[in-house]
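fyi for ur records
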Amino acid sequence: MNKEMSLIRKFLFWWFGYPLSASVSVNIAIDFTEADRFLKEYNDTSNHKVTIQHLIMASIAKSLMKVPEANSRIINGRIYPQDQVGIAYPINLLGHK
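which gave:
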């Protein structure tokens, strides 16, 4: 293991093993009661529709900006930190009006 690696990174390698894929999967439960209330108030008074997906994407982007160590790419088994945050999110627009 690289001696220049941070303690957090060493712990993560110990916990999860070395990265074999650039994909990250998460399964959590979140109480969206306040978010639903906010979205209803916002959408009732705005010409722009904001959804839970927008809030999730914004929170992921803000989290990656606050914890730059998590904003990395895995290429050929090596971790490369990124200077910018970029997120892609699939959206089904079939039947969208």
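The beta strands are 72-75, 78-81. thats all i got for now
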